[in-house]
User: Fold this.
Amino acid sequence: MQTTKRLDEKLERIAQGQAKRSDFIIADAKDADMAFGIQAPGPKRPGNKNKPSHLLYQSNEEYLDQIRAIIEQDIVDILLLSASNLEKIGIDEGLFRDSAITPAARANDTTDVWAFRESSYPSQPSRNFRTASIDHIKYGRLSDDFTQPYQGADLGLYSITFTNDIDHDHAALETFRAFRIEAEQKRFRYFLEVFNPNVHPGFDPSHTGTFLNDAIVRSLAGVTRTGRPLFLKIPYNGPGPLEELVAYDPRLVVGILGGSAGTTLDAFQLIHDAQKYGAKVALFGRKINLSESPLVFINFLRKIVDGEISPIEAVKAYHGELSKARIKPHRELADDLKPTPTQNNYSGA
Assistant:
């Protein structure tokens, strides 16, 4: 028997127009192995004497330990994993059964997230690809019976990157249509990630927000309730585009993605501004994973969206916690309080 999930309760209150500030949804993306390969867990942290000095990155088992710790902390609402790590954590170890956190898996891995070393795929027009199957995400194996309770996850992230190229975008929407039909047949829920174009789209980049909004609304206009995403995951292109999309259709729950790591203020200010201008969800991956102390970092994200602390004060308090734990910060406090440009896709564009 699955424990009641916070995500479902929050989405229900949002749908009923009864959401409170504390119903803001925080998701942690721990699916980076489907993008960065060996680099996914992040740089080897100081103090690990059991690893050869030439190894630059943490192991997958250390990545799994981070996931286990976040489940035990019980603050985030969603944990997004690759299907293989979901099998280990969710099916083999059963760590989500008694947790209020909802497990999810990346359901497709478009070519613009193939960001492993020496690759140039992220800078080429995005093409759809799916490694994982719905069967394996739900049960770890092929199945003919999708009425049985899931063992892994019944929620996945589906990703599209519109490039303003009719051939690439047409192909992306055809595969999205096929996925929606399969998901409905197999009782599988999804949320929709829509990146900014990862190549030059042929228009003034300052218009990216309006392009993205129109692309999203047009793509979902022909989709009835059973085929629609639970929520969106999109780049934060500024208050104007976000407010426009949120105001267009209250049934569309809009969330923002974190993008590249940047400073601590980048992350804290982003989640604050996204909530201020109407977002109901934030999904951070690299911003959490590459922080000095992910658990402390997550705790401050929650405090910000709950209105307990401002972004600037949260950065200062975060540095205070690092000092108490004798963890060396990546930057001095003054530098960590500066905003920096954030990359909203894997190409660096």
Remarks:
- The mean pLDDT is 94.
